Amino acid sequence: MGRILVVDDEKSIRNTFQVFLSNEGHEVLIAENVENAIKVAKENDLDLVITDIIMPRNTGIDLMEKLKKIYPSLPIIIMTGEPTVETAALSVKNKAYDYITKPVDKNTLIITANNAVKYKQLNDAKKDLEMKNKEYQNNLEKLVEVRTESLQKAMNATVITMSTIIELRDPYTAGHERRVGNLAVEIAKKMKLSKKQLDCIYVTGYLHDIGKISVPAEILSKPGKLTNIEFEFIKTHVTYGYDVLKKVELPWPVANVVYQHHERMDGSGYPRGLKGDEIMIEAKIMAVADVVEAMTSHRPYRPSLGLDIALNEIETNKGKLYDEEVANATIELFKKDKYEIIDETKNIVFSV
Ligand SMILES: [Fe+2]
Ligand SMILES: [Fe+2]
User: Which residues line ion ligand 2, judged by CB < 5 Å?
Assistant: First the structure.
């Protein structure tokens, strides 16, 4: 049961209450004035205080005010031999648990005290549960944070590893994947695409030519012009890339973007000759980033064509081969924002 403090300046009442409540299984402490009552309250974890109102010096109402400040959830039962409207009002104002009048009937005292103790203990148990729940939630959030971070790292590592493998297969275009990825993300940012789309574009950029693994190395590294048959071979990299990536469960449509990155607005691209809105925005961005990167990069068989020629290609063919909005964003990115193609491998924090 509970620990109860009885405060009364009359010794007979203190003793009687102590006997009644002890018989109910409570631990009963006593105090004859407000000062002692506060001392006992500070030294003991109380479940209930039953206090007389009229006592020498400080009253039971003073005691209640002081205790409520320190222990707001401690129930206090007020009792008095001279019940008045004022004392009742003060008791209510100070949030007394109950108000009983003297002479106190034994049964009333026991029922009221038992209920108050139960109320306090249930309240404590509820608070304890709330605290544990909060602690659990915090731990869970921390755990999710740690797991998410390690997943992020694993995802980045996988993307970068795959990108490096593609590079090993086609050393003449080393860094092409990541430069396209970095540029495509910047174009997408300019077009205010969502974070999820940016993540998709980053991953797709770094992997977009993954299908080149299936193209014979001598064709990939052949300097100079390709024959028609060789070019047909090169074209298969989008379908192979799609076939490889569609088997991987990713939170973004990476396989489809890879599949479409050589499509052109007028239907002259490959492999399916998609037109306009049939092409995903991510693929339209990838197409422009791919062309700009390729034209501005050195190749073993030719020097860089330069940024001006690359941007001129985009400007001339915007609306025809390249999406107009993507083309404008790209031109603005280079001309106004002075963007320079970045060769470094970037780690990104994916949205989850
Ligand atoms: Fe490609
Ligand atoms: Fe490419």
Answer: 209, 290
232-269: pLDDT as tens digits: 999 999 999 999 999 988 889 999 999 999 999 999 99
CB 75 within 8 A of CB 99: no
How close is the Cα of 180 to the center of ligand 2, in Å? 7
Q: Any idea which fold 3-129 has?
A: Rossmann fold (3.40.50)
Q: Which pLDDT does position 58 carry in this prediction? A: 87
CA of 195 to the centre of ligand 1 (A): 24
Domain with CATH 3.40.50.2300 in the chain: 3-129
Candidates 3.30.1360.70, 3.30.70.100, 1.10.3210.10, 2.40.160.50; correct CATH number of 170-335?
A: 1.10.3210.10
Q: Determine the distance separating the centroid of ligand 2 and the alpha carbon of 122, expressed in angstroms.
A: 67
Note the helical H segments in 170-251.
Answer: 176-190, 195-207, 217-220, 228-245
Counting residues of the chain whose pLDDT is more than 70, the rounded percentage is: 99
Tell me how far apart the alpha carbons of residues 142 and 136 are, in angstroms, rounded to a whole number.
10
The closest ligand to the CA of 238 turns out to be 1
Hey, what amino acid is at 153? Answer: K
The Cα–Cα gap between 204 and 182 comes to 10
Residue range(s) of every CATH 1.10.3210.10 domain in the chain: 170-335
Report residues near ion ligand 1: CB below 5 Å. Answer: 209
Record the pTM: 0.66
Q: What is the pLDDT of residue 352?
A: 58
Q: State in Å: Cα 192 to ligand 1 middle.
A: 24
Averaged pLDDT of the chain: 91
Q: What is the pLDDT of residues 70-88, one digit of tens each?
A: 999 999 999 887 777 777 7
CA of 244 to the centre of ligand 2 (A): 16
